[in-house]
Specification:
alpha/beta; Rossmann fold; 2 domains; about 35% helix; globular
């Protein structure tokens, strides 16, 4: 059975919706989507570090549409692991675990890897929204489209725009 590594933030959890919510709560306005294209989260949101260190940021992030059903199927067809960088924001450790338990209860605690660098992770396939995580990976790589990566050529990575495309690419037809 192939080992599939799936990122959490920006792939399973809609952190951009959270950034928009926090920005609206703080500033009373939201940037147009077109203004986010090609910018890192830190470039796009002035107070991103405040947001991600706020209680509830990770715990209350919306689920990416279509991800739960596809993940249930992937869990039956792959040795599936959720791998999420969490050490930079220590508050996120507990919130990310709780979020996964709430939205993906079919995953066991043994399938959750909360880490610092993903460079130590090995598997056959990695699904992530950041080039920094995909570029070093030795297996097949799938780039999940998010505003920060939309203006970049995916290079050797296969780009998907949503969970319907993930299903088409990774599940039997």
């Amino acid at each position: 059975m192939q080992r599939l590594i799936v990122d959490m933030d920006g792939v399973l959890a809609d952190v951009y919706s959270q950034f928009r919510k926090f920005e609206t709560d703080e500033l009373g306005a939201v940037q147009p989507d077109r203004d986010l294209l090609g910018k890192t989260e830190r470039e796009a949101y002035k107070n991103v570090r405040v947001y991600v260190n706020s209680p509830g940021f990770f715990l209350n992030a919306p689920v990416m549409p279509g991800s739960v059903g596809v993940m249930e199927q992937l869990n039956r067809n792959y040795e599936l692991f959720i791998v999420s960088s969490a050490m930079e924001f220590p508050l996120s450790l507990y919130e990310k675990y709780q979020w996964l338990q709430q939205h993906f209860p079919f995953l066991s605690w043994q399938q959750i890897v909360l880490c610092g660098s993903k460079q130590v992770i090995a598997g056959d396939i990695m699904l992530d929204d950041h080039f920094k995580n995909l570029d070093h990976f030795k297996g097949k790589t799938i780039l999940f489209s998010q505003p920060h990566n939309m203006l970049k050529d995916p290079g050797s990575h296969t780009r998907v725009k949503d969970w319907r495309e993930v299903a088409h690419l990774l599940l039997p037809h």
